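Example record

One chain of 97 residues, shown exactly as stored in the release files.
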Amino acid sequence: MSDRECARLPAEKLAGLPREAWLTTRQLASSLGVCKKTVLRWKKRRHLPAPFPFGRGYAWVVGAILDYVKRRQEEAEAHMRSIDGAMRAHRESARYC
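Predicted structure tokens for this chain:
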């Protein structure tokens, strides 16, 4: 399995759930293949959409997570396209030096 395929697995697991479903911190960690501390660290660093308080912990709405992941993926792809364009322009300008 390629790295790209591995990176898609968590999103595919989440995509199989109803968008209105919610996951506790432990459930989200399990779905993403990380530990609970990682999810809490991502929450603190705002690498996840905002959760809602649930009992003594937090819960996330599946649809919000999927939307966030999609938005981050689109941003990363746009960034890579801009880097690629800049590199191509640099190579073109270097030919004429």
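Notes: Residues 1-7 have pLDDT under 50 and may be disordered.
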